[in-house]
Amino acid sequence: MLVRIQPSTARGRITAPPSKSMAHRMLICAALAEGTSTIHGIDLSQDILATIDGLRTLGADITCQDGNAIVRGTDIACRGGSEPATSILPCRESGSTLRFLIPLCLMDGTNHVLTGRERLFERPLKVYERICKEQGLMFLKEKNSLQVAGTLAAGQYEIPGNVSSQFISGLLFVLPLLSDDSRIRLIGPVESRPYIDMTIQALRKFGVHTAWKDERTIDIPGRQQYCPQDAQIEGDYSNAAFFEAFNLIGGDVTVEGLSQESVQGDRVYGRCFDQIEGGFAEIDLTDCPDLGPVLMVLAAMRHGARFTGTARLRFKESSRGAAMKEELEKAGAKIELADNEIRVAAGVGTPSETLRGHGDHRIVMALAVLLSKVGGSISGAEAVAKSLPDFWERLKSLGILVRLENGKE
What we know:
409 residues; four-stranded mixed β-sheet; 22 strands
């Protein structure tokens, strides 16, 4: 799908989309609780649908209606051999779904095959591969699938702190259910800690307790049970950032529905925006990699910036640093990439050709901010459905001149 955007100014009030990150976590906790939970404020993006499909395959009964999910949970650890020899969990393009559900698939001894796009299985999975090898569990990765089987053991887990926090969160979901206590020890610098804290917050909501023993150690008592809950998904800072970004380029947008007590890592976007507005910015993306694309766009449109902590941008839905360099250079920007650093010079204009979305929702949304000022088109506009299906309608409601067309130029 192609989107054409004419120069226009965003004005108005908009409610923040529900947090996709917290929705994944709440749904999983509800699915692990024996009883019925109601999760309010669910946005049925492609990523959330992938998690729902996977949890249904694992035995949860989930009904979605009017932005709510009714979840009748299941004791996955006790299902044993009651299910078919092999079950299929379609993860689509969702890295969160894949990494969160792998430990759940290692609870009942059943063979499980997690499937998805080839790009999904190019993203790192070495942490789980090593754990499975050490514990004698099946871990068979192909181009677009992963087969696992066996039962995780309680105990000591050592995980590099600079890998995706999704591995740690995946283990945190299941280790409290095991018959003995466990501990996760993070080795080296810890990246994306706010996402770990989001998982701990969701666990606590459903009656499961873990504790930071120190800055790199999480103690996880075993023999716990998830309790069904009535829960509300908070507003999403990650997607709200794209709407407030218009304020740096002449817009007047108020985003409502964001919790000031949130532990979301991307809540720092306001501070990042202030730095970009104030002059050449120095910004560390270690704990907020999803903000990378929109911050790169704003840096090019304002005073330039140097971003550090960018290595993990290579392992998202696209190689985001390289993708943004390719697209922004079509609009005359100057970008320098290094292993863990990106430099963006000030200066950008109307693109010389159609921009590509690279199959990445955050790339498409970031480029939309640029084109609202200079005009142009983006192919692959449908990628926004991964996290925010109504993104284009939201832009129209703010006065951005958007036209969607089927096909490509």
